[in-house]
Amino acid sequence: MLVLLPPSETKRDGGDEGSSLDLAALSFPQLTAARKPVLSAVKSLSRNLSEASAALGLSAAQRFEIDRNRAISKSPTMPVMDRFTGVLYDGLAATELEDAPREWLANHVVVHSALFGLLRAGDRIPAYRLSHDSRLAGLPLKRHWSSSIAAALEAHDGLILDLRSESYASLGPAPVRENSVYLRVVTEGPDGTKRALNHFNKKGKGEFVRALALSGLFHEDVPSLLSWADTRGIRLAAGAPGELELTV
């Protein structure tokens, strides 16, 4: 079972003293060759403050992100599940979990990074800034990542639960098959009408993945996942073809 999450633009500072980025230690080694030119382009871009600010869409107050990118190969690392912050990752609250649910996250959660491609939750990375819509000279991210990420996901023959935003899903589509589904978070009005959530869908996703981690269960298919959700009072149901709806 793979649970795919989007990254967050906000990240926690710091990391383990003496650690630094080791590309060879990251999961999905088939993506190593694709990671190198993106990493090189980010470091090159960070040499020019004005160009980097424009390419990364940064305000003057966010220029510390460029310093992060300059030091990306030397700065300390921490697990992916702890590095990202923001609404989704606050809902997940991985730093508050005990060893067993953190191990579940490390085994089953994959975060889709614009810089590194697919990362398991236990992979160790530095703080950085690069988004799906960042502009790298001569290296369009969608064209660069799409086929290699799609191939890596296709190679997984178990259940894939895609919680990525549509913008990240476009950087590497999940396979179209029975045990690969996209999760939409919706709310239900007094009249029973359902509508998609924007900001608050992130919190729902984070809390849902936290519940999965705390359960410690492995789901081989969608019926198993739906049955588990029903026993926990989680409103998860089939939606449009190839999709599940989580009502919060």
Order of helices and strands: EHHHEHHHEEEHEHEEHHEE
> Tally of extended strands?
10
N/C terminus separation: 23 Å
Percent of residues in β-strands: 15-25%
Give the helix tally: 10
Structural class: alpha/beta
User: Roughly how much helix do the residues carry, as a percent range?
Assistant: 25-40%
Poorly predicted runs = none
Global geometry: globular
Largest sheet: 8 strands, mixed
The radius of gyration over CA amounts to 18 Å
Query: How confident overall, as mean pLDDT?
Result: 94
Overall structural domain count: 1
How is the secondary structure organized here?
Blueprint (H helix, E strand, L loop, with lengths): L1 E4 L26 H14 L3 H8 L7 H7 L7 E2 H4 L3 H6 L6 H10 E5 L3 E4 L3 E2 L15 H14 L5 E3 L3 H4 L10 E9 L5 E3 L2 H17 L6 H10 L3 E4 L4 E5 L1
Parallel strand pairs: 1-3, 1-6, 6-7, 7-10
Antiparallel strand pairs: 2-5, 3-4, 7-8, 9-10
Quick structural summary:
By secondary structure, the chain is an alpha/beta fold. It has helices at 32-45, 49-56, 64-70, 80-83, 87-92, 99-108, 141-154, 166-169, 199-215, 222-231; strands at 2-5, 78-79, 109-113, 117-120, 124-125, 160-162, 180-188, 194-196, 235-238, 243-247.
